[in-house]
Amino acid sequence: MSTGGAVSGEPLYDVFLCHNSREKERLRELNHRLRPEFGLRTFFDESELVGGRAWTEHIQRALASSKTCAVCLGPDGWGPFQLEGEAKPALERQKSDPEFAVIPVLLPGMKPEHMMVLEDSIGSCRSRDG
pLDDT, tens digit, for every residue of 39-96? Predict the structure, then answer.
């Protein structure tokens, strides 16, 4: 388990896994494949968060210490914190950090049009830039 920010400017995580907590089982499977099979350092909340600590701050630090954000969307739709607390901040970061990638991931049972809320967010971010 990691405990803080990036060391020497290097990101702590290769991939921040943004997801609805109701999709936890599918994300466990994805996390299990990304770590050992591909050697990626992932931030998956249940593997990193400690009970009794300020989890929203920990998630914000983890997102800031990640190279990419995989925005995972499954049949349960958007989670109560996922869109506003993770996906939209990731899109905001991408505007100022072109090295940071936001990767949409549709879980089984989803269709591309289900990501429209995220697409709408991308459009509103771009329109504010003028």
Answer: 999 999 877 766 666 778 888 999 999 999 999 999 888 888 898 999 999 999 999 9
Q: Please list, in sequence order, all residues whose beta carbon lies within 8 angstroms of the beta carbon of residue 14, skipping any fewer than 6 positions away.
A: 40, 41, 42, 66, 67, 68
Residue owning tokens 């609805």: 20
CB atoms within 10 A of CB 121: 20
d(CA 123, CA 79): 21
Distance CA 98, CA 125 (A): 14
**Where do we find the tokens 């901040």?**
89
Q: In whole angstroms, what is the distance from residue 124 CA to residue 121 CA?
A: 5
SS3 content of the chain, % helix, strand, coil (to 5): 50, 20, 30
Tokens of 68: 């990419």
Could you give the CA distance from residue 99 to residue 71 in angstroms, rounded to a whole number? 16
